Amino acid sequence: MNAVETGKYDPSLPLAFHIARRFGMTIEEIFEAESDDTSHQSH
Q1: Which of 1, 25, 28, 42 is surrounded by the fewest CB atoms within 10 Å?
Q2: pTM reported for the whole predicted model
Q3: Rounded Cα gap, residues 21 and 34, in angstroms
Q4: How far is CA 7 from CA 24, 30, 33, in A?
Q5: Integer Rg of the chain from CA
Q6: Rounded CA gap, 18 and 29, in Å?
Q7: What is the pLDDT of residues 6-43, one digit of tens each?
Q8: Is the dihedral of CA 17, 19, 21, 27 positive or negative?
Q9: How far apart are CA 20 and CA 28, in angstroms?
Q10: Alpha-carbon distance 33 to 8, whole Å?
């Protein structure tokens, strides 16, 4: 889980479903898609 949270591992879709089921949650509740919004990045 730590590697996923720190961005060092990009989980496959089947693994994402497995993780969600394990925690009794939906994929959307666990993972959020990367946004194209760059307003939070420093320039």
Answers
A1: 42
A2: 0.49
A3: 22
A4: 22, 14, 13
A5: 13
A6: 13
A7: 877 766 888 888 989 999 999 888 877 666 555 455 44
A8: negative
A9: 9
A10: 16
Identity of the amino acid at 38: T
Two structure tokens written together for 20: 């969600």
Distances (CA, A) of 14 to 5, 17, 18: 17, 5, 6
What's the one-letter identity of residue 7?
G
The span from the first CA to the last CA of the chain, in angstroms, equals 30
Residue 35's pLDDT is: 63
Residue 22 CA to residue 29 CA, distance in Å, equals: 13
pLDDT at 34: 67
